[in-house]
C-alpha cells in the first residue's frame, strides 16, 4: 500500500492534468490552439471574406475603334473595409487601379475586348476575377449629309445597316415592312424664295406655307426604321379588331370602292390618339416597351423601345432621302403622278399602298393618299441648327405631313406642314409607324 502522502501527491497530479486537458478543449472550442511543447496559445488565422464587385454601367453601348469606353464599378466588403477596384486588359497585363470606381479606356481597337476586373479590401482580401466582354466596332461610316444622290442613299443605307449589324428591310408581326434609315443631316423646310412663290398662287394657305421657314439645318443622330408605307386597313383591323375607314366595303365611301379589295388601302378615319393606341398595342404584341402612356386625353412619353409616330423632322428627312428639291424626284410636278395619289390622279379616293414608285430609301406613298400623323405638336421652327428636334412641349394641334388624295401637287411637297386637333378623324388622315433599332 502507498503511504497517504504518496497517494495525495498522485491525486494532485491527476487533477492538474485533467484541468489542463479541459482547459485545452475549452480553448480549442474558442478557436485557439495549444502548443504542448512551449505551453503557448496561438490564434487561428481569420476566415477569408472577400469583397464583391459589380458593373454599374458601360458607355457607350456600341464603342467604336479609335474612341473610348467608360465602365463604372461598385461593390461592398462584408467587414465594411475600404475597397479598391483593379482592372487589366488581358491575363499578361499588369493590374491597374480604377480611380473612383471608374475604368476609362481610350484609343480602342476594333475587335473583342476582354476586360478583367476585381476588388481588393484593406485586409488584402481579393474578390473573384470577373471578365467583361465587349465588341469594339469599326469606325462609324460618315453621316448621310444632304444633298446626296439616289445611289448614294442606297449606299448609306447598306453601309450603316452593315455597321450596326442590321437589315435594310425588316418585316414585323403584322407583315409590315420597315425600311432602315441611316443617321444624317439635311436642311429642313423651304427656302424663302420657294415660300414666296407658292404663297402667290395659293393665298388662302399662306400661313401654312410660311410655316415652312426658316429653312434650317437638322441632324438626325440615330438610325431608325420607318414603315415602307402607311398602315393598311388589314393591318389596323388585325391588331385593333375594327376597320374605321371611310373608303372600305362597309364605310361611308363604300360606293367609291365598290368591288375593290381595300385591305391594302391605307387606313383612315383615325385620330392621333388612335394612332398612338395602335403603336402601343403593336409594341405589347411584340413584347417591346411601349413608347407612350395614354390616359384619357393625355399622353405621356415613356421613351420605351416600342413603336411610335415619327417626328416631323424624321419624316421630312426620310422623305427627302438626300434631296433638296420640292419632291424627292425633283421640281417638275408633272412627274408626281408616278409617285403619289393626289387630286390629278386619285379620282377622289384612296388607293392601294405601294402601287407607285418609291423614294431612294424605299418608302412609298409619302405624298398624297392620306395625311400622315407625326408625333409633334405644331409650332414655329427654330432658326438655328438643331439635333433630333421633337417640336414644342405643348400645343393644340398635332402635325400631319405628306398631303392627301384630294390635294394638288403643291400641297404634297416634302416641306409642306399642316396640323389638326389630335382627336379629329377624317377620310384623309392616316399614319405610318416608326421603330428604333
List keywords for this structure.
alpha+beta, Immunoglobulin-like, paralog of FGE (formylglycine-generating enzyme), 2 domains, four-stranded antiparallel β-sheet, four-stranded mixed β-sheet, 7 helices, 23 strands, elongated
Structural notes for this entry:
The protein is an alpha+beta fold and 437 residues long. The chain has two domains: 54-136, Immunoglobulins (Immunoglobulin-like, Sandwich), CATH 2.60.40; 144-435, paralog of FGE (formylglycine-generating enzyme) (Alpha-Beta Complex). Helices cover 20% and strands 23% of the residues. It is built from seven helices and 23 strands. The protein has a four-stranded antiparallel β-sheet, with no helix packed on it. A four-stranded mixed β-sheet has the order 10-13-14-19, covered by helices on one side. It is elongated, with a radius of gyration of 36 Å. The protein starts with a helix and ends with a strand. Residues 1-46 have low confidence and may be disordered.
Summarize the SSE layout with pairings.
Layout: H1 4-29, E1 32-35, E2 40-43, E3 54-59, E4 69-74, E5 83-88, E6 96-97, E7 102-105, E8 111-121, E9 130-136, E10 144-145, H2 150-163, E11 169-171, E12 177-181, E13 184-188, H3 192-201, H4 206-210, E14 216-220, E15 224-227, H5 233-240, H6 272-285, E16 292-295, E17 298-301, H7 312-320, E18 371-377, E19 386-387, E20 398-401, E21 418-420, E22 429-430, E23 434-435
Parallel strand pairs: 10-13, 14-19, 18-22
Antiparallel strand pairs: 1-2, 3-4, 4-7, 5-6, 5-8, 8-9, 11-12, 12-15, 13-14, 15-23, 16-17, 18-20, 20-21
Amino acid at each position: 500500500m502507498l503511504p497517504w502522502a504518496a497517494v495525495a501527491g498522485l491525486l494532485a497530479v491527476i487533477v492538474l492534468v485533467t484541468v489542463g486537458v479541459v482547459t485545452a478543449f475549452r480553448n480549442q472550442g474558442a478557436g485557439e490552439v495549444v502548443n504542448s511543447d512551449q505551453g503557448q496559445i496561438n490564434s487561428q488565422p481569420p476566415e477569408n471574406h472577400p469583397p464583391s464587385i459589380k458593373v454599374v454601367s458601360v458607355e457607350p453601348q456600341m464603342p467604336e475603334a479609335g474612341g473610348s469606353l467608360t465602365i463604372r464599378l461598385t461593390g461592398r466588403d462584408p467587414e465594411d473595409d475600404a475597397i479598391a477596384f483593379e482592372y487589366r486588359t488581358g491575363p499578361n497585363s499588369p493590374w491597374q487601379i480604377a480611380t473612383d470606381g471608374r475604368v476609362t479606356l481610350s484609343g480602342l481597337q476594333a475587335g473583342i475586348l476582354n476586360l478583367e476586373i476585381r476588388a481588393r479590401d484593406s485586409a488584402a482580401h481579393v474578390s473573384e476575377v470577373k471578365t467583361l466582354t465587349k465588341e469594339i466596332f469599326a469606325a462609324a461610316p460618315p453621316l448621310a449629309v444632304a444633298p446626296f444622290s439616289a445611289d448614294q442613299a442606297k449606299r448609306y443605307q447598306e453601309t450603316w445597316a452593315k455597321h450596326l449589324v442590321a437589315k435594310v428591310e425588316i418585316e414585323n408581326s403584322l407583315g409590315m415592312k420597315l425600311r432602315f434609315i441611316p443617321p444624317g443631316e439635311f436642311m429642313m423646310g423651304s427656302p424663302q424664295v420657294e415660300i414666296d412663290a407658292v404663297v402667290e398662287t395659293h393665298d388662302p394657305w399662306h400661313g401654312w406655307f410660311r410655316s415652312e421657314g426658316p429653312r434650317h439645318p437638322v441632324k438626325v443622330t440615330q438610325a431608325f426604321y420607318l414603315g415602307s408605307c402607311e398602315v393598311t386597313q388589314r393591318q389596323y383591323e388585325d391588331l385593333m379588331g375594327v376597320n374605321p375607314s371611310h373608303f372600305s366595303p362597309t364605310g361611308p365611301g363604300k360606293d367609291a370602292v365598290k368591288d375593290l379589295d381595300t385591305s391594302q388601302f391605307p387606313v383612315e378615319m383615325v385620330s392621333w390618339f388612335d394612332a398612338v393606341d395602335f403603336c402601343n398595342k403593336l409594341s405589347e404584341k411584340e413584347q417591346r416597351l411601349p413608347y407612350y402612356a395614354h390616359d384619357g386625353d393625355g399622353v405621356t412619353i415613356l421613351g420605351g423601345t416600342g413603336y411610335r409616330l415619327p417626328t416631323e423632322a424624321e419624316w421630312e428627312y426620310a422623305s427627302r432621302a438626300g434631296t433638296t428639291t420640292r419632291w424627292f424626284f425633283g421640281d417638275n410636278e408633272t412627274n408626281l403622278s408616278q409617285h403619289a395619289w393626289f387630286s390629278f390622279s386619285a379620282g377622289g379616293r384612296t388607293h392601294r399602298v405601294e402601287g407607285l414608285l418609291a423614294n431612294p430609301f424605299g418608302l412609298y406613298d409619302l405624298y398624297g393618299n392620306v395625311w400622315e400623323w407625326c408625333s409633334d405638336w405644331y409650332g414655329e421652327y427654330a432658326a438655328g441648327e438643331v439635333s433630333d428636334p421633337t417640336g414644342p412641349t405643348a400645343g393644340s394641334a398635332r402635325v400631319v405631313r405628306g398631303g392627301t388624295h384630294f390635294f394638288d401637287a403643291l400641297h404634297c411637297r416634302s416641306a409642306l406642314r399642316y396640323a389638326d386637333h389630335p382627336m379629329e378623324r377624317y377620310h384623309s388622315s392616316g399614319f405610318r409607324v416608326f421603330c428604333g433599332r
